[in-house]
Amino acid sequence: MENNFNDKPEELSKSYKGSGNTTKGSDRKKMLIIILVAVVLLAALWIWKNTQINNEQEEAERKKQILQERASALITNTHKEHLKLLAKPYVWAVRAELLKGNINQVNLYANEMVKEKNFQSIVVANDKGVIISSTNKKNEGQQFSTVGKPNYLTSDTTIVENINDSILVMSSPVMGFNNRLGTMMITYKVKSPNFN
After folding, report:
1. Structure pTM?
2. Domains (ranges, CATH) in the chain?
């Protein structure tokens, strides 16, 4: 349609309105596409950040678990070292009483020691492997192998073994002047650390 000065104003306005609708329709489509792209980008950004946060949380939890395991191992090793330190003077006291033949005093030492926190049992066997003193009186007269490992009876050094990360078993030889008088075994409960 040609613009002609003879045309009526209503006809001219109709022709401009008709051509404007297609421009408005394409503008709307462009705007919807832009909004859709923005929503998709925001959703992708949100998913990416959410995944990143989850990965960081998993990594932090893994590091926390490793740290707790290391701390537990350190606590257990500290208890082992303390038991080894305790063994020397305790064995000396037991040795002195065994040389005198004073089993009642050995029993008294054991009964007093087992009253302390985390000590479970104390057993002393003679050089033949027979239990002569125990905090559990049912064990007295029994063979040492009923409560402890047979290799404890022949070991010349103090041994501390970790059983199930909750029990430490310490065995130590009780030596006389030139012979073995017996073997002492202490069972000690390691309290699980609470990291919460």
Report:
1. 0.69
2. 57-189 (3.30.450.20)
